[in-house]
Amino acid sequence: MTGSSDKVKGKMLKLLKNDFLASARVIPLFYLVEIVALGVFYFGKFANKQKYLFIGGGVGWVVSVLLIFVTFFFVVYDYQKSLFGQQGYLSFTLPVNSKQLLGSKLVIYGLWMVVSFADFILVTDLITRYVQGEYGDTIDSASAMLSLFANFPSKAQLITYAIYFIAYFFGTILSFTIMVYFSIALSHIRQFQKAHIIWSILIFIGTFIIFVAGISLFEKYFGIYIVLGADKSMKINFGNVTSKGTPLELIPFVFMVIQDVVYFFLTSHIMHKRINIS
């Protein structure tokens, strides 16, 4: 049993390595451009040269926006090309199952999506704080963030809130990525294949509507909250929030986990049994 488990891990690691190398051909180049742009930005800041500040900050922010679209493009493009395009037949003849093929794509491109969004948030915050500090037109974002955290009377509550925010961020991107993969896979069954691009878009719109409606429906009939109280307490409430404090809804997580598991197995089943490789 141990030998079999080691073989599975070895195959999965090879898949992860290959998918990472495939994604690393283009995406890191954008990060390299952004590092250079932010270097120009900091040079302008320390040398007090506005031209370099504007050029570096502007290029850095534009690249951070482009990274989101470039990463999403590769999420779709590599999945489509390596599994349903000319490479599809080769991919499906590898000594791995459909769950491993799908899982590898989710891990690598899900992480790239997280990094791209996190990069956009950090670069935007960096430039915004500089502009606000330089011109004083609006409240400094760092001060606003500190005032938000000051509402929590204990460090444990602050850590809980940070973990909640990060988990929500990761969970949403994972759900988004697996919905994209499910839509593409379903669009390649024989009935939809001739117009698979149109069908993949329509299916994604349908899954996204289900995603939003499902969370709203769950929140309407079920309520699970972590309530961060003013007395430094942290309580789990079911139903309506009765305790005073800041409620953190857990139902979206429950729904996202259920949906992701369902879509993962549906997608792997479609890849294994229903797919029509041309």
Structure description:
The chain is mainly alpha-helical and 278 residues long. It contains nine helices and three strands. A hairpin with a 5-residue loop joins β1 (224-228) and β2 (234-238). The chain is flat. It starts with a helix and ends with a helix.
Task: Map the helices and strands.
Elements: H1 2-23, H2 27-47, H3 50-84, H4 88-92, H5 98-135, H6 141-149, H7 155-186, H8 196-221, E1 224-228, E2 234-238, E3 246-249, H9 251-274
Antiparallel strand pairs: 1-2, 1-3
Keywords:
single chain, 278 residues, mainly alpha, 3-stranded antiparallel β-sheet, 9 helices, flat
Task: Write down how many β-strands occur, each being a DSSP E stretch of 2 or more residues.
Answer: 3
Calculate the terminal CA-CA distance, rounded to whole Å. Answer: 37 Å
Overall mean pLDDT stands at: 80
Sequence of strands across the biggest β-sheet: 2-1-3
pLDDT under 50 segments (min length 5)? 135-143, 145-150
Secondary structure class reads: mainly alpha
- Give me the strand/helix succession: HHHHHHHHEEEH
Indicate the radius of gyration in whole angstroms: 23 Å
Global geometry:
flat
Number of helices: 9
